[in-house]
Recover the amino acids of this structure.
């Protein structure tokens, strides 16, 4: 009898986990969620000359965000970061994610880490001459995602591909 019950339990075990996998398949993946957030935060960044877009951009960041920039130094608050964005970015250049470079890693009981490469394009000439790597730490709390840490580093000139 014990052997029959054990055999039955083992046979049913895959069915017990099936609904969890089915539910996960219908929800957006963590990578999809972070990719959408990345698009949204940089859409507002790219249009930050408009005060409403700069305000929207600010909402993606924790008030105590730490922003590490290899050539610009460190800012320790959202207000300081936004002052730099207003001064150096708005109306001067835009950011584009390099397709295929975004990687997303779950951080247990916190959120996610995103890393990839992005290029920067002059707003007037539209030349995309700058390239850099980035790492962004996203916190998921009370149903909201916010950026708590940013690292933008390895800034370099974009190398033109042959034939381009």
């Amino acid at each position: 009898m014990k052997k029959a019950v054990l055999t039955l339990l083992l046979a049913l075990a895959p069915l017990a986990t099936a609904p969890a996998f089915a539910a996960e398949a219908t929800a957006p993946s963590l990578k999809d969620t972070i990719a959408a957030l990345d698009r949204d935060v940089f859409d507002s960044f790219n249009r930050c000359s408009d005060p409403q877009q700069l305000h929207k951009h600010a909402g993606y960041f924790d008030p105590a965000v730490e922003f590490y920039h290899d050539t610009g130094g460190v800012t320790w608050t959202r207000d300081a970061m936004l002052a730099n964005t207003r001064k150096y970015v708005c109306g001067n250049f835009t950011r584009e994610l390099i397709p295929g470079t975004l990687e997303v890693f779950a951080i247990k009981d916190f959120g996610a880490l995103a890393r990839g490469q992005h290029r920067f394009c002059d707003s007037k000439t539209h030349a995309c001459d700058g390239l850099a790597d980035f790492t962004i730490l996203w916190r998921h709390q009370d149903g909201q995602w916010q950026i708590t840490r940013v690292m933008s580093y390895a800034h370099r000139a974009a190398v033109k591909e042959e034939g381009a």
